[in-house]
Amino acid sequence: MPKHIRLSIILLFSMAGIFIIDQNIKMLFVDGFRYYTECIDLILVYNKGVAFSMLAFLDEWLKYIQLVMVSGILIYIIYLKKVCYAFPVGLMLGGAFSNVYDRFVHGGVVDMVYWHCGFNFAVFNFADVMIDIAVVWIIFLNFKPTWCKS
């Protein structure tokens, strides 16, 4: 199978998978699911900014800026033509597109996991975790070029 076809398939399926999983989890919370423990609460929060609510002052512009940035990453990875980046970038873009989609549909990103054991941490979601995993994965690929020969 040609490299560009393999790259596209891996990218598409990983993006779609993360998007679908994340949106289904978020719908549980939008529909009313809540769960509370001593360390982690599963609640509903609409984040108008990015990480730790930064850039919330950009209001409506934020979703368009993010859409352009995420689309740029998609175009760049297709241009790069390195199959080894397809899955981690698919994880990242699936989560990113899901969060941008939330901004258009809900007016903010649907977050639900609130860590408060020992210290208060940010409220986050499944897409955020996938984006973090993808970033670490991509950093490893960049520091270990032998892992990514294509």
Description of the structure:
This protein is an alpha+beta fold. It has one domain. Helix content is 58%, strand content 13%. The protein is built from four helices and four strands; from the N terminus they run αββααββα. α1 (3-30) runs parallel beside α3, α2 runs antiparallel to α3 (86-106) and α3 runs antiparallel to α4. The protein is globular and about 50 Å long.
Give me some keywords for this one.
alpha+beta; 4 strands; 150 residues; 58% helix; 4-stranded antiparallel sheet
Distance between the termini: 14 Å
- The low-confidence runs, each spanning 5 or more residues with pLDDT under 50, are none
**Major sheet characteristics:** 4 strands, antiparallel
The fraction of residues in strands falls at 5-15%
The overall strand count is 4
Name the shape in a single word. globular
Order of strands side by side in the largest beta sheet? Answer: 1-2-3-4
Helix content: 55-70%
Output the structural class: alpha+beta
Topology:
Elements: H1 3-30, E1 35-36, E2 40-47, H2 61-80, H3 86-106, E3 109-115, E4 123-124, H4 126-143
Antiparallel strand pairs: 1-2, 2-3, 3-4
Helix pairs in contact: 1-3, 2-3, 3-4
